[in-house]
Design a protein that fits this description.
It is built from 8 helices and 7 strands. The chain is α/β, with parallel strands linked by helices and about 230 residues long.
Amino acid sequence: MTAYIFSLRHKKVVAAIKKVVLKHLSYYDESLLWDFAQVAINNEKMRIEGVIIEAECGLGGSAITLAAAKSKDRIFYVYDVFSMHPSPSDDDGLDALERQKVIETGKAQGIEGDLYYGYEKNLYDKVVQSFADFGLEVEKNHIYIKKGLFEDTLKVESPVSLAHIDCDWYDSVLTCLNRIEPHLVRGGTLIVNDYWLGCRKAVHKYFEKKNSGDYSFTKKAALFIVKR
């Protein structure tokens, strides 16, 4: 019975990922989304306890993927400003600052020429509706969507099995690591995406005083950090 349940979940996740990509709900390709999903599926198989967190969801594609991969009863917190994200700092480098200028002048483009998600009106409502369109209504699936700046909304009070940190800039990434990682359970995973200069600096700063033997670091298209 357990094998049958996981077979159904695999099929559900594969279908969700294909639909996410088709509907332009994520900048990630199918391969990376499947990497995310596999962590969530493995956590269910290994019975690794803890909530799931996503810090910055954009149009919701990766969050939908994780929601499809998790058990219905596992709590999933999604955090985002659901508008223009905060500006980078000098710690993020010139490339990030130039990118922000393009965004602020209204010239940024979304996936394949779509409207850039930071310009979307009612992005929060659009993301909630996208979950419903995938048969993953937020209330029925224990998904809690938190709108606001991380420093105001990201207050972790439960063990964490999986966290996807996708907020690019130094200050935001460091805030997420400081608030999430202390709650990461043994066997839990942090996925750090969009490994820009500021993001790399934040990861290095946070883990430089940690015992490296307590973690494994695997760099694919994103950085996967597992607590041993």
